[in-house]
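Support case: copper (II) ion complex. Customer-provided input:
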Amino acid sequence: MDRTRRMIAAMALLAVVTSACSSAAGPTWTFGPGATPNAQAVSSQAPASAAPDASMAMPAASAAAPAAAAASAPVADPNAPAYGLRDATAPAVLPGTTHDIDFPIIEKDITVATGFVVHAWTFGGTVPGPTIRVHLGDTVHVHLTNQGQMSHSIDFHASQTAMNHQMVEIKPGATFTYTFTADYAGVWMYHCGTAPALLHIANGMFGMVIVEPKGGLPKVDNEVAFVQSEWYLGAQGQASDYAKANQVAASPDFVVFNGVANQYKDNPVAVKTKGRTRVFILDAGPNLDSSFHVVGTIFDNVFKEGVGSSAGTPAGGARRPSTSRRHRGRSSSSAPRRTGCTRS
Ligand SMILES: [Cu+2]
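Agent response - structure generated as follows:
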């Protein structure tokens, strides 16, 4: 039986799921509808409308936050640059036990859906930021240089550190090195914690850390990594709309995997026929649950919220490992940093 590991940080859905393609109906997995005769769809991919998905529709609610009317999405710009496809392949684990990683903080225009450009705030120039994959016990030095126009910070949920020690303000032009040891295996979020953290996350400042368990993860045929998040569009070429993101019944313009709406519908992720596939999932939010699942097969190993289940056990496999967390109304200083972690 394949072994995977997964942990939860308090604010994000984080999951590692693995499955053999044993479905008699369709041994080929392809993420994205209609790609092959055996195509299997992934839920929660971005719809190009203000109502992202029936499963994500929320009832209207009175807003505890300032009841600013949510702005409508801007009109698609036919001259907007094409989006850049994000490779969903999970990165290889970094060699060695000590890692020095450069994370320039860059504010830049990014096409987040065909016809829509956001002036995003980023770690490393991409949304999500780079995925960091290390072994349990490794030491990670992340070297940040703020090339932007405002202060930012970073909070690694994979770390255990005093917030006033490392989750500090990094002013424009300043540098800072955040160091942590990978003490727990799993999938972890990192994000900017500068207030309002909701906005800094909604505008692109988040990413995934994968910490492999002791001995490493068993080899599989395919590994993919998906970070789910939301876009709350402001005007074309501007930052995300904080008032829209801060609604109690937040209704994003796009719910996306790896930063761009519909990119894996346009460019389905193909995996090896009859191979074993491992999926790393992080829900960065900042607001909505994830309903991630693969249609037509079952994950035989699932680690969700720090609890594992395997096919053939009373817990069984899983089709839909979903849960959530919310950043609403929180700065990093008030949000819980981690729930308990277990291993199996
Ligand atoms: Cu920030």
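Residues 1-15, 20-69, 321-344 have pLDDT under 50 and may be disordered.

Case will auto-close in a few days if no follow-up is received.
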